[in-house]
Amino acid sequence: MRNILFKNMIVLMTIGLLLLLIMYNGVKFYQLQTESFIGSQVSVEQSVISQSKKNISPQTIIRWHLFGKETVKQVQAPKTTLRLKLIGIISSTNDNQARVIIEDSSRKQLFYSVGDKIKNNVTIKSIHPNHIVIMHNSREEIVQLKSSNTKETIITKVVI
């Protein structure tokens, strides 16, 4: 009986010693991580400060193309004579994501995407950031988004 008790005490002491070592290594690891994090923060702050001392013009920032380069295809087509009003555009390089809001002559506003029919002989061929191209009687025509200096609010959004 005494022998079993002695073995149990040795096992418990070994487990306690292992737990103590794990805790000690955890504390050391945490200290190393916080020291390296604080050191990296200081170097980032110094880098930002040195960059902010340089005068960067807006034109330089524009040339960086932070959101990608704009790829607008110029379409040579006449403006439409239909009584359609382009209210809003959700433009995308993926035609499946692009949408427009068009108001017809009855002042009814609906969502459309590429390939949708607006009327019997009118379909949407392509959607661009500031206009759409429609096929009207097998002829390309442009419906332009009104400029924002009108009295009405026009919402535009570009999906990247």
Task: Tell me briefly what this model is.
By secondary structure, this protein is an alpha+beta fold. Helix content is 36%, strand content 26%.
Strand percentage lies at: 25-35%
Query: Could you state the order of secondary-structure elements as H and E?
Result: HHEEEEEEEE
**Strand order across the biggest sheet?**
3-2-1-8
Q: Say what the CATH topology of the largest domain is.
A: SH3 type barrels
> Cα distance, first to last residue?
76 Å
> What global shape is seen?
elongated
Taken together, the total number of domains comes to 2
Report on the biggest sheet: 4 strands, mixed
Low-confidence stretches: 152-160
- Helix and strand content put the structural class at alpha+beta
Q: What would you say the CATH architecture of the largest domain is?
A: Roll
Structure description:
The chain is an alpha+beta fold and 160 residues long. The chain has two domains: 2-54; 85-158, SH3 type barrels, CATH 2.30.30. It has two helices and eight strands. The protein has a four-stranded mixed beta sheet with strand order 3-2-1-8, with no helix packed on it. Strands 4-5-6-7 form a four-stranded antiparallel beta sheet, with no helix packed on it. The chain is elongated. The relative contact order is 0.12. Mean pLDDT is 79; it is low at 152-160.
